[in-house]
Amino acid sequence: MALVNILHMTPGHEDSSYAKNSLLQETVIQKAIPCLNHTIKGIASRDIFLDGCFKIADLGCGSSRNTLLVASNIIDIVIEVCKENNHKPPQFQVCLNDLFGNDFNNLFKLLPEFYAKLKREKGENVGPCIVSAVPGSFYGRLFPDKSLHLVHSSFSVHWLSQVPEGIENNTLNIYPAKTSPPNVFQAYAKQFRIDFTNFLKLRSKEIVRGGCMILTFLGRSVADPTSDDNCSLWEQLAQSLHDMVKEGLVRESNLNSFNLPLHYPCVDEVRDAIKNEGSFSLDNLTVFQVNWDPQDTDYTNTNDSIDLGQKHGRNTAKHIRAVTEPLLTSHFGNSINVVALFKKFEKHLAEHLANKKTRYFNIVISLTKNE
Fold it and tell me: In this predicted structure, what is the pLDDT of residue 38?
């Protein structure tokens, strides 16, 4: 089945749903606010939306409260910028995009509270705000020519349009791992380069001249693709699937044919792709790290105690389950015992974190469309 039809976060409001397990994404969104603030001020300085309608697209928006948190943050910043410049705030058009399987119904149910809060806090200081959904892949066209002022995307662009071709020899791995053959790393890097270049080219047609994008995505801290911040997390999930194979709960052939459609680029890969595509200027690039467990606020220690490792392993496993369960059940079938798999995953994560606290490496870039 095409990836575009099966890639989505776990829907609903159950304990394993994305709606209940998106604190990591919220943490990342909040850390990117300074860059968002700077980007919107740059747009305002070019007078391309003042006194009109500010058109925003949030790509890969997901299905939790984080989506409308992004919209609220943008509206807050725009209103503040207008106040600083003695301008009347614009009207707002917010377009929420994700793939077809996204739980848009959950987002729609959040809208009455969003509108009420906006009216309560802003009153007459803000014009109409119209929110709509635009389902589809951001590796295809989504909007009319020159129709957007700001494109935002958080924790989405590291997802590829497809699993790279020619990696059948990546057996017993589900992602580029330290034991993967060199061609696997090359294939993933090539697929990212193709997809990210296409993403930039498509958005350049949809964004007005002088409009901007702010993209936050997972990356790796060094050029070496075997680094821990690229491989370690998914090696723990692969090991959990190996355990299921040994117990006869998963077929080895199914494991050998499963690979995740993800790529964590290094900074140079991102810079090179932007430069070579040529439609955008890179205004700002910042990086930051967050712990695998978003509830873990300890950034001093380099490993966990056994008790803390178990706690952080459990929280991390819940977050990863909310992101990957639809992919896993689509490939392995509904017969896979997802609860048992993620119990094993918890254990492997706890053991890993007790030895080395590995963190997510995040890249934030701000781009302006060229003349």
Answer: 86
167-194 pLDDT, tens per residue? 999 888 889 888 889 999 999 999 999 9
Give CA separation, 148 vs 53, 54, 213, 366, in Å: 10, 8, 10, 15
pLDDT tens per residue, range 102-127: 888 888 888 898 888 888 887 766 77
CA nearest 37: which of 80, 88, 95, 68? 80
C-alpha to C-alpha distance for 78 and 87, rounded to whole angstroms: 10
Determine the Cα–Cα distance for residues 346 and 211; give it in Å rounded to an integer: 43
| DSSP per-residue letters across 281-295 | EEEEEEEEEEESSTT
Residue 12 has pLDDT above 50, yes or no: no
The continuous run of DSSP H or E covering 13 comes out as: none
**Pairing, β 148-154 against β 53-59:** parallel
In b/e form, how buried is each residue of 281-293, taking b as 16+ CB within 10 angstroms? eebeeeeeebbbb
Q: Which two tokens stand for residue 43?
A: 């747009």
Can you tell me which residue has the tokens 């910028």? 81
